[in-house]
Write a structure and sequence with these properties.
- Belongs to the pirin family.
- Its cofactor is Fe cation.
- Keywords: Iron, Metal-binding.
- This is Pirin family protein.
- The protein is mostly beta strands and about 240 residues long.
- It has a single domain, classed as Jelly Rolls.
- The strands form four sheets. The protein has a seven-stranded mixed beta sheet with strand order 1-20-17-22-15-13-14, with no helix packed on it.
- A hairpin with a 4-residue loop joins strand 7 and strand 8.
- The mean pLDDT is about 95.
């Protein structure tokens, strides 16, 4: 087993006033040659958007983009005539493919929005752009791996497709609950909240660990926890 531990304090950080953004991997003005990616996972940003603020219209191309709200609601608008808000419990997937433009905005006058945005490098480039979002029932991830995203050619029922042999899963763990995760590729474990033990390492809120060259790993919750798993090819 190989492992790489990323404590939350080692992330890049940018404060733009309207946006506070924590970067797990090199992004924008945060450049770290030792933190470029984990396999096909290129970006994992932990963004906080202030009330009545947002990202203006901007382009993407040949990237699988997944957004997961942690608190609040974020409005989305794109050039494919999608205009919807994503809320806590929902997951949004965009396959940028040949190119798309979109904007994101927090319409609340009082509450900030916190969401995770992941970029995964696609297996196939220049696909027709795709957009979807889905609400996932909380009961489906209680002490159980809930598959949020899976490959378009091996789609797990109920999940959203991406053009890569990658899987994104979430699990809500009760205190002292223990479970084995069987890796498909390499797996990057990002702790949204709580405290867990993975591969003899203790993860606290927003800590992460990447595991490779292992068939399985034991996860134990030291307290009530929410864990995100990004299982992606390494090359």
């Amino acid at each position: 087993m190989n492992k790489i531990l990323h404590k939350w304090t080692t992330r890049g950080f940018a404060d733009h006033g309207w946006l506070k953004s924590y970067h797990t991997f090199s992004f924008a003005n945060y450049q770290n040659l030792e933190r470029m990616n984990f396999g096909m996972l290129r970006v994992l940003n932990d963004d906080i958007v202030q009330p009545n603020m947002g990202f203006g219209t901007h382009p993407h191309r040949n990237m699988e983009i997944i957004s997961i709200p942690i608190s609040g609601a974020l409005s989305h608008k794109d050039n494919m005539n999608n205009q919807r808000a994503i809320e806590v419990g929902e997951v949004q997937v965009m396959s940028a493919g040949t190119g798309l433009t979109h904007s994101e905005f927090n319409h609340s006058k009082t509450d900030a929005v916190n969401f995770l945005q992941l970029w995964i490098l696609p297996e196939t480039e220049n696909v027709t752009p795709y957009y979807n979002q889905k609400m996932f029932e909380e009961s489906g991830r209680k002490n159980n791996f809930q598959v949020l995203v899976s490959p378009v050619d091996k789609l797990v029922e109920g999940s959203l497709p991406i053009h890569q042999q990658g899987y994104i899963l979430m699990i809500d763990l009760d205190p002292e609950f223990e479970i084995e995760y069987h890796l498909k590729n390499g797996a990057y474990f990002f702790l949204i909240d709580g405290e867990v033990s993975i591969a003899d390492e203790t993860l606290k809120e927003r800590d992460a660990i990447g595991i490779t060259e292992s068939e399985k790993v034991v996860i134990k919750a030291n307290k009530k926890s929410k864990l995100l798993i990004i299982d992606v090819p390494l090359n």
